[in-house]
Amino acid sequence: RCQVRGVISQFDGSACLLGDTGYGIAPWLITPFKPPQNAQQRNFNLHHARERVVVERVFGQFKKRFPVFGNCMRVSLDRVPKTIICCAVLHNVGKHLNDVYGVEEDVEENALEGDEQVEYQVENAQKKLRGEEKRRQMMYTLGGM
């Protein structure tokens, strides 16, 4: 977990991950407003939730098509990224060839409301403040759309 956090925290600011409300906000991990205080924040949360649903759906498809994602991957940590990329390429080739094995549409009913509660705290208050500022900037960008 610490290795992953170290890699992710090196993002240059142009990329970020979307997390649910169980995670602490950081410049590289954007979470919804909890609770939203105004229409702009509700709009941001709606966009955030829609994007997370897309990601969760892809994760579900990967787990169905490639059982290795449903359990602990039994490969060394340095091979995990290559394994994921290979599976993503095979998944996309399968979609291109209309091979729908294991990718039936299944919508997670509670994806927009019941976020998983994950024990995660950001140790550094500065990270939290920078993450909140980035989220505000993203919210204002969405407001101009």
From TrEMBL:
Pfam families reported for this sequence: DDE_Tnp_4
Cofactor(s) for this UniProt protein: a divalent metal cation
Gene Ontology cellular-component annotations: nucleus
Keywords, comma-separated and alphabetical: Hydrolase, Metal-binding, Nuclease, Nucleus
Cellular localization per UniProt: Nucleus
PANTHER family reported for this sequence: NUCLEASE HARBI1-LIKE PROTEIN, PTHR22930
Protein's UniProt name: DDE Tnp4 domain-containing protein
Domain of life: Eukaryota
Family to which the UniProt record says this protein belongs: Belongs to the HARBI1 family.
Alphabetical list of InterPro entries matching this protein: HARBI1-like, HARBI1_dom
GO molecular-function term, one example from the UniProt record: hydrolase activity
Domain DDE Tnp4: 14-92
